[in-house]
Amino acid sequence: MAIKLMVVTAGCKMERFYDRINELETLAQIERQAKKTACFTVLTGRRRIGKTQLLKHFINGKKGAYLFTTRSAEKNLCEQWQKILEESLGLKIFGKVEGLSDLFEQIMTYSQKNHFTLVIDEFQDIEYVNKAFFSQMQNVWDSHKSSSKINLIVCGSIYSLMTKIFMDKKEPLFGRSTHNMRLKPFPPSVVKTILRDFNPKYKAEDLLCLYMLSGGVAKYIFLLMNAGATTKAKMIDSVCNMASPFLVDGRDILISEIGKDYGIYFSILQAISRGLTSQSEIDSVIQKNTGAYLQNLQKVFGVIEQIRPLLSKSESRNARWQIVDEYMLFYFRFIYSHQDLIELGNYDALKDFILRDYETFTGKTLERYFAAKLMEEGNVTKIGGWWDKKSMNEIDIVAVNDLEKSCGIYEIKRQAKNISLSKVQSKADVFMQKLNGYTCAVSGLSMGDM
Length: 450
Prior knowledge:
47% of the residues lie in helices and 17% in strands. With 450 residues, it is of the alpha/beta class. The strands form 4 sheets. The protein has a 5-stranded parallel sheet, sandwiched between helices.
């Protein structure tokens, strides 16, 4: 329920929250625990995923306060937060507050006799307000946590900084969090539900286009649905518009993560979006060794991942790189690659390029959609693609259930008529040599199965 949309039903408008049932239940469990002992939860996730909506929805009706970090002077931020704390919690600050550490000290003192939830959003931006605060916070937390009943939740939109603050052994808040949650995109069933609410007569092509543009990211779905872009044609039109956030969001998000020296990183992402997925292919385009850049994009910024054939060894060199986020993949394939058209204001030509390559591009989108759908259904313990060293034999999706000793092998095509199960079976016979004793079912999935 981390997305709130205005849905029109029978001529009446109503607000509806979607999904996040498991996340809300986890947060509720932590809150119950915090009534006995202090809890410190770190919530991460890519920008636009719905972290703020989730937390605001969670504390609604509870004794709690929501604090947003602005990059303002420390004194001004303290004054803003003091006012909210008094209005939301009845916490009256006594004495002179010199800075954020003094304010946090009073919050922790208040929590010794009062249980409440405190959310601090854009937590990483406190570094711009007071670089020493994280060390000061560590001292205050360590001194009061044993007698506190606070349910403290912090979240931030810059993944790399949030990870550094809490996962880097050199940082003062390393090891202080009691719970860590990472918010993921909506699964396919929720994307379908939202689209159905706004377009009950949607077609498979509309759903595929929505998944291509959003990947289940709440904000992108919100933007399209509230703009009335509920069909493929309207979605593409909405994207190819001078005021469209889809034209700038990829750049803005990644520059906030990577910084000003983003040139080589963007070139690498552009190469991957074009299908150059091995390091050797990427190196040949960039004309330098990109190993360190690829590692940063994976481990520091969380933008790409390295995939290997299912069941292959972790040290296997038969690996590929892929962009993990559907919108980012779309952005680098079509938007970043055609910046010249955007600067000229030639949005019709941009749309023509998207539509020209749309069917080929969404073939892979469909594979990822079905992989996510199979994972959501929960009857797998391993899932992924498989290919041999020369990429002569390749299987789109292999879904393994080790508990039942079963394996599903799937060929994915936009049109069912293009699926050849006999060819898939021959590939499956090669792969199943790795799974002696397992039963194997070969099938095809197309847009009619979405």
